[in-house]
Write a structure and sequence with these properties.
mainly alpha; 16 helices; disordered C terminus
Length: about 400
């Protein structure tokens, strides 16, 4: 992994995909949301979550690889640790905010929470389970996965620096064993219900590692990224389009062509596992094909520079705060949809306010970064390094 400056340019296509995934996650986190009919999960077997995690590996390599190279192991580990601590703090704030908002909503409207209910009824013990990451309620379970994957990034980087092929093989071996042996971590939202992490870290790590490898290939300028083989690009297109046709999200043709193939076929949930929790090979291949098509396309590089897409790119460049705000706004949207009639007006307000706020936040944070005055002389000190992730 050759040395590269921390100020190396970001790939706008990555920011565009991350921004789209964040907006899709917001929409998909609100059941009955009409816009969910056009989000990423309608275009293939995979969805915004797989895209987000794969690109997290790409961005982590972009952000922290040069820190390790320029300042050494100690500073690199410190930066990764502080970032994990930062993300954990956001998770705790989101959890506490969710507790308060759901509790107040229950008192005001007489509703009864299904997702947070078991933790709310357990009081401080339920809160402690959440803070200790032993309980990951739905919609608040992707940041803990991110924390865990980022925490092992130094180990992944160590392996990739010595053997890319060996590290990838080890990652896929762990992925296969997790599927075959049903390895997962416990999720004690309700002590009476034995559950596990919805985003199984032993399986989802393969997406993160693939993202790291793509970042290395891009930094090295390898032909597989800079001058992709036409046959490989064509194969990716065939598979991605095939997934779209088989999924038939909008029921464009009669059964049984797509019909129940995706939901019920045992092939799509290898070893009978839940396809998303264990990232079925079909979902994995789909997100890999989509990302490869975009990240090797000069046309997509030009599209990512369109002025109209600048707010989406800004969201991708500021993924953590945008994701956190999206979680809060999606919770409010779910509560509104549950207690009010889901009319066209309500749909428009929830989506316009939510998506508008996320896009605005991305632009505001971008403007704040641009207003910072760089040091006029000398190189930044190690403790001043703040990688953009």
């Amino acid at each position: 992994m050759p040395a590269s400056p921390s100020s190396s340019p970001r790939d706008a296509r990555v920011d565009l995909l991350r921004g789209l995934s964040l907006l899709s996650i917001y929409v998909d986190h609100i059941p009955q949301n009409v816009l969910a009919d056009i989000t990423l999960h309608n275009f293939g077997f995979s969805d915004a979550a797989e895209l987000f995690v794969l690109l997290a590996g790409f961005s982590a390599t972009h952000a922290y690889n040069s820190v390790f190279e320029r300042y050494g192991l100690r500073v690199g580990l410190k930066r990764v640790f502080l970032r994990c601590l930062h993300i954990y703090g956001v998770q705790v704030v989101l959890l506490i905010g969710t507790f308060l908002l759901v509790g107040l909503w229950e008192q005001a409207y007489g509703t009864r929470s299904i997702i947070m209910g078991p933790m709310l009824r357990d009081g401080w013990q339920g809160a402690l389970r959440g803070v200790s990451l032993r309980a990951l309620p739905a919609y608040l379970d992707i940041l803990p996965l991110y924390i865990l994957l980022l925490a092992v990034f130094p180990l992944v980087r160590f392996g990739l620096a010595r053997s890319v092929a060996g590290t990838v093989v080890a990652s896929f071996l762990l992925y296969g064993l997790a599927n075959a042996l049903h390895w997962n971590l416990p999720n004690v939202v309700d002590p009476a219900d034995a559950a596990h992490w919805y985003f199984n870290p032993f399986a989802w790590q393969v997406l993160f590692v693939i993202g790291c490898v793509l970042a290395i290939a891009a930094r090295r300028g390898l032909p597989v990224v800079t001058a992709p083989p036409r046959a490989l690009v064509a194969l990716c297109w065939v598979y991605a389009v095939g997934c779209f046709l088989v999924l038939d999200a909008w029921k464009l043709w009669p059964a049984p062509l797509p019909g129940d193939f995706y939901p019920t076929s045992p092939l799509l949930g290898i070893f009978g596992n839940e396809p998303k929790s264990y990232v079925s090979p079909w979902r994995l291949a789909d997100v890999m094909a989509q990302v490869y098509i975009v990240l090797t396309s000069p046309r997509m590089a030009a599209v990512a520079r369109w002025r109209v897409l600048r707010p989406v790119l800004a969201c991708g460049r500021n993924s953590l705060p945008v994701f956190a705000l999206g979680c809060v706004l999606a919770l409010v949207g779910r509560l509104i949809f549950r207690t009010a009639e889901v009319t066209v007006t309500v749909q428009v307000i929830v989506n316009a306010v939510g998506l508008g706020a996320l896009l605005a936040l991305g632009l505001i944070l971008d403007a704040r970064k641009a207003s910072r005055v760089p040091r006029p002389h000398g190189e930044m000190t190690p403790d001043a390094v703040r990688p953009a992730e």
